[in-house]
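Recall that a protein's primary structure is simply its ordered list of amino acids. Everything else, from secondary elements to tertiary packing, is in principle encoded there. The following example makes that idea concrete.
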Amino acid sequence: MLSEDFYNYSYIYEYEEDEQPVSYVSAAHIVSLSLCSVAFLLGVPGNAIVIWFMGFKWDKSVSTIWFLNLAIADFIFVLFLPLYITYVAMGFHWPFGKWLCKTNSFIALLNMFASVFFLTFISLDRYLRLVHPVFSNKYRTLRNTLILSGIIWISAAIIGAPALYFRDVTTVHKPSLHVPSSSFTDQYQICILAIKKNG
């Protein structure tokens, strides 16, 4: 897809005209890379252990179903963190192609909305169990929890789905966008929000 097909871009970083380009990896980028690396190293085994115990070892209950789904959402997200880590480490050059750009953006949105929805329902579940025990005992069943979990996943996927269409990869020149400099290329592939012209 050619860059002239787009008329509106959304970038993570914007610079004023008189600002100098940042160095290849700034202090903020190092902090971001460090935090993401720690999240990946701890998140993959941590969430895998939670999924293993709640999904296969412990007896199924309403609470374990909620936390199992929350762990699955986080596990999927941390599995894709190496793509973002590489992206930042390479000075915001995206070497993985269009489909991983779309998929990575979709997974980030899916995780964000699924996590928010599951945390909301976990809080609501606790509230109903403590304040309205009669209602809770009647409707707080494994079947209803599984149905709600399915609805949450579908809702999160629908909300995140536009990323599969609007995210794309385009080639840009560093000087025009003030992207961090590197010694191995004068052009960058960036994963961006690209809105096509109508007609």
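The CA atoms of residues 73 and 102 lie 18 Å apart. The chain has eight helices and three strands.
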